[in-house]
# Entry
Amino acid sequence: MSDRPRRYKIFMDKKKRIALIAHDRRKRDLLEWVSFNLGTLSKHELYATGTTGALLQEKLGLKVHRLKSGPLGGDQQIGAMIAEGKIDVLIFFWDPLEPQAHDVDVKALIRIATVYNIPVAITRSTADFLISSPLMNDVYEKIQIDYEEELERRIRKVVEGEEGET
# Structure
């Protein structure tokens, strides 16, 4: 049995499901970025946490699936959607200088995006690179590590090690 976790392929459709999140002091930046990229983003399905989604709808007339506000569970809702395979890309303009009441939720969201190999942009320049990639508007085959199998393997290893010490 190999120590290397099993990998499998998942296909992202041409039409991506994109989550948009911004902390309060970064909402203007996200609004400007979305406005600049409106043509590209309008070809995809957009999700946003509460206030961010309301701003995008009100200011840009954009169709956005709105979830709860971040501090009220919106970040966790996005995380759950990532785990369920319902989000393909995460654009999260966060404020690194402002402590957030829900920092643990933000950390969990970035972690779950990493577990599920979701492209994540947390800065405007990264978002620019991501949105301008030819992969954004095409079918994409991503490689996913089977972390469930990996967790089971690690637990078995620990249990077998403990049983051997008795």
User: Anything to note?
Assistant: The mean pLDDT is 90. The helical segments are 27-36, 38-41, 50-60, 74-83, 103-115, 124-132, 147-165. The first strand starts at residue 7 and ends at 12.
